[in-house]
Amino acid sequence: MEDYKALPVLVVDDEPFILNVLRHMLGQLGFEAITTAGSGEEALQILNAGELPQLILLDINMPSIDGVEFIRALVTLGYPGSLVLVSGESERALSAVMRLADVRGINVLGYLKKPVAPDALGELLATLSTRTLPSLSPSKASTYEPDILQTAIASGELVNYFQPKVNVQTGAFEGVEVLVRWLHPRDGLVYPDDFIPLAEDNGLIQALTMNVLCNTFRQLRLWQDSGLTVKAAINISMDDLNSLSFPDDLAKMAEESGVSTHDIQLEVTERQLIPNLATVLDTLSRLHLKRIALAVDDFGTGYSSLAQLSDLPFDQLKIDKRFVHGASGNPTAQAIFIASTDIANQLAMETVAEGVEDRADWDWLQKMGCDVAQGYFIARPMPAATLPEWLELWRQRVHAEGLLPSPTDPD
Ligand code: G
Ligand code: G
Ligand code: MN
Which of helix, strand or coil describes residue 26? Predict the structure, then answer.
């Protein structure tokens, strides 16, 4: 859909020449409502005076109010739209500012290096069409009441989606990650970011986890009965590990479903790892003794120290998508990726690369000797019924697209 081209755009740059060039490029791309500002002050006046634009192209080096200060002002204004950073600065400097805006809750589409290429601008802005535009679709209630969620869990409105993982070197199917969705009677498919934090803050996460686990076991059993053995990784929260009975509850559930605990893996996000609690150590150790595999999720985004990692019985490290997608062309991401896989190897942990979005990511991982990959390039999260079909297609793709390293390859 091309609707996004009707969005009001504001371009902020202290160089009149660049303002003209960007205005022209935006016009060529079909944007109609373009306003320009020659300084941060002028831009703030425009923003304070009237309607907020939906898209801002921002130069980060300007003489008086710079891009960083401007972003701070945007946050104060509650700017709901998207942001594109434009600059001649190094990529590291740009990504620091991009990250800053992101952390402050501003939707950053990406950055453009000067001189701006029309194609790069077009590509970046095209991603607007696939995003939910806050002010065009009045914000779908991402604020659900806890008791509604509680009822939804109890009445079976949560459904599991499954995202396949495959071996990068052999193409073999390694298993799935379970990603829960809420099939809301009015709002349709609601994503976990809109209800997991709610569950965590209102004492509902343990019930939610048990529900996800129960549905997972039931599905694994169905696949098993049809001749398909699938290993499943479930995301759990810190609160689950704070319950001493969790390992036993889990093992009991597996037994009742006729599924081996070997086919289950648990992912704990690095952002929540605060393993100074005796209880967490207790639970993790007992899960490990029960041969339930444990993975550190989103590695690279949190604060776990090497000492903490080596103390905990993790089997797998899932490297966050920030250090995977586009890493072949991004030296900083590469450095973090390589350091992470080194740690994993030293600690005898398997690595999974998340966020493999295109062929370039795939080829690069293969060269890096990575074990397992997950991401849109392989498959998006899907309902259970689609998995057998996908498996068939994947096997065909591996050959048709030549996804495996060729045997004559000297690497
Ligand atoms: O599914 P998505 O594709 O949007 O997942 C978004 C986030 O929600 C991820 O960080 C994922 O770890 C988390 N998530 C998905 N399913 C579950 C779940 O069943 N339990 C918990 N605690 N987190 C989940
Ligand atoms: O549990 P974790 O935080 O790692 O959750 C994985 C999240 O990443 C889910 O929201 C899932 O839908 C999303 N995801 C899976 N594959 C890709 C991908 O290739 N690119 C991006 N951007 N996100 C992905
Ligand atoms: Mn995960």
Answer: helix
Ligand 2 atom closest to 298 (CA): 4
User: How would you list the strands of the sheet with 34-37, edge to edge?
Assistant: 34-37, 9-12, 55-59, 82-87, 107-113
Q: Is the CB of 361 under 6 A from ligand 2?
A: no
**Statement: the pTM of the whole predicted model exceeds 0.70:** yes
Q: What confidence tens digit (pLDDT) does each residue in 166-221 have?
A: 999 999 999 999 999 999 988 899 999 999 999 999 999 999 999 999 999 999 99
Residue 147 and residue 380: Cα distance in Å, rounded? 31
User: Atom of ligand 1 at shortest distance to CA of 199?
Assistant: 22
Q: Which two tokens stand for residue 53?
A: 């634009």
From the number of C-beta atoms within 10 Å of its C-beta (0-12, 13-18, 19+), residue 392 rates as exposed
The tokens for 199 are 């569950």
Please state, as a whole number, how many other Cβ atoms lie within 10 Å of the Cβ of residue 75: 13
Which ligand is in closest contact with the Cα of 237? Answer: 1
Beta bridge partners of 316: 295, 350
Q: How far is the CA of 43 from the centre of ligand 3 (A)?
A: 40
